[in-house]
Predict the 3D structure of the following.
Amino acid sequence: MDYNRAQEIFASPNEYEVSYNGVSIWIDKLHEDGKTATVHLRRAHEERSEVAISELKEEYQVH
């Protein structure tokens, strides 16, 4: 995924299915470097990780 698309998904009122290494995640924060984001697993809100935005994959929009 590129930074612009990550920004669109993050700012959208709609819910999107996004994955990191095949695991469904939420985007918590996009970093100013334009290359990384803080994310957490959809089922475990406590664990947050900093990952490369390029490693994120948009699966589909949840209706």
Observations:
- The chain has one helix and five strands.
- The longest strand covers residues 44-52.
- The mean pLDDT is 92.
- The chain has one domain: 3-62.
